[in-house]
Design a protein that fits this description.
single chain, alpha+beta, six-stranded antiparallel barrel, 25% strand, globular
Length: 199
């Protein structure tokens, strides 16, 4: 995913989360992808995609099975694509102030409507990996609509990948695992289940 190109824009915003509509020509980002929303004054907010949904633009009209392959649908019914949209819900976890200081806490203001949403570059994800305060938020205040452990797995996998995977990600993963162990009150079985699914 190209970090220089917006994947969508904010259509709902609150203190804890925002919803963004993904542009039609952009690939839908994966569950657990880190994203950032810069503002006009040089500050950024960072969050983790905790829900991806594709459906009809019109809530009163439900999509129906067409029995056509993607190629057949594009040829015979190209207007169908214009009737559906993909949205993502993002749990806010950190912000960077105008002086460049990263704070692993809720931002003072949520993103504005129609702000652009970008994938996070690896350097930003590396910064979010330590001291792992975002993990505390994910453990204690997860998105209630998704399994907390699955979101933790996705967050840790992103940190691992941003550090270079096998090359440098293992050290970051060990550090995050130690922090997570304390947060889970030494529930070793749960910790092992999470860490097993990261790699």
């Amino acid at each position: 995913m190209d970090e220089s190109e917006a994947l969508g824009e904010v259509i709902e915003s609150s203190t804890r989360q925002f919803v963004a509509e993904v542009y039609e020509d952009a690939s839908a980002p994966a569950f657990g992808t880190w994203v950032q929303v810069p503002d006009a004054e040089g500050a950024d907010v960072y969050g983790l995609i905790s829900h991806v949904e594709t459906g009809s633009y019109d809530s009163n009209r439900q999509a129906v099975a067409l029995g056509l392959s993607a190629d057949e649908r594009a040829e015979e019914m190209p207007m169908v694509q214009e009737l559906i949209r993909t949205t993502v819900r993002v749990q806010l976890l950190a912000c960077r102030d105008r002086e460049g200081r990263l704070r692993q806490t809720l931002p003072p203001h949520p993103p504005d409507l129609h702000d652009f949403v970008y994938p996070c570059p690896d350097e930003a994800i590396q910064d979010l990996g330590t001291p792992a305060d975002v993990l505390r938020t994910l453990v204690n205040h997860p998105d209630p609509a998704v399994p907390a452990d699955d979101l933790l797995v996705a967050a840790l996998r992103s940190v691992y990948d941003a550090h270079g995977g096998e090359a440098g990600g293992r050290e970051a993963l060990v550090s995050a695992g130690r922090a997570l162990s304390r947060l889970l009150d030494d529930d070793h079985e749960r910790l092992q289940s999470i860490l097993r699914r990261v790699l």
